[in-house]
């Protein structure tokens, strides 16, 4: 393992232990387990600028991708799920705090989510996002689901912002907290959501207190994948807040989008001192690292010359309950660079 690779799983597990999220907790009606429908409903929430009203808590939710699925698990809502869709390239699910929830919940498909799959699952709600399952080109959209009587909830990180198909309407951690608050209202588990948000805010504040500051803040580039053009993160995807609150200067902070491509010449010009690799997919983190080290245009970039490359998991970098632990992990790595 490269010396700058630091798993965030222990920090995450410790944070969740403080709230008990993902385990059975006392609901508003005083009983154990999930809260019951009742006087709480109907509830109305704002989801990507659209008001949505729920007459009762959905009972058969289908989620798409790991971060979205774990938002449900972190709130102890696996009993409300018909299943999840996720490729099998998202890391070791047996080592996460929600391993029991994964085991109890049906893995519906390791391929692309589609209308036939959610109909077969008898879903009453699909929790996905633009480019996190929803895609006009594939004909799988909230509007198409509405036509067959299935509701939808859009991941806030994926909200389109009116600039063609660019995504992002708020800072990444606020997107995470917004979804937790909304899910808390939809499923009548607001106490769980509030406790989890408070724990995450405390964890982020503690990491920031120890993070590099001022002139010690290194310039950081997020490398997702891509050879001709790198896929990276703009101001509205998880890595922006992860990098910034960990004590780094995110070199693509001026990109008003979430996940997007740039030119290698921009990377070279901004000369990152640290590269964070997004570990997922058919190309391993080590293969990505070897490419970066061998790609001639990057030879003069500080991070490459000094071999300052950090690896974080996909689920730590997309919107998910793993984000605060990733901030703590990266802050520790960036501190070590200054020693």
Automatic annotation (TrEMBL):
Keywords: Signal
Keyword Signal (UniProt): yes
Listed name of the protein: ABC transporter substrate-binding protein
PANTHER family: IRON(III) DICITRATE-BINDING PROTEIN (PTHR30535:SF7), VITAMIN B12-BINDING PROTEIN (PTHR30535)
Signal peptide interval: 1-23
SUPFAM superfamilies per UniProt: Helical backbone' metal receptor
Highest rank taxon of the organism: Bacteria
UniProt domain Fe/B12 periplasmic-binding: residue ranges: 60-339
Family that this chain belongs to: Belongs to the bacterial solute-binding protein 8 family.
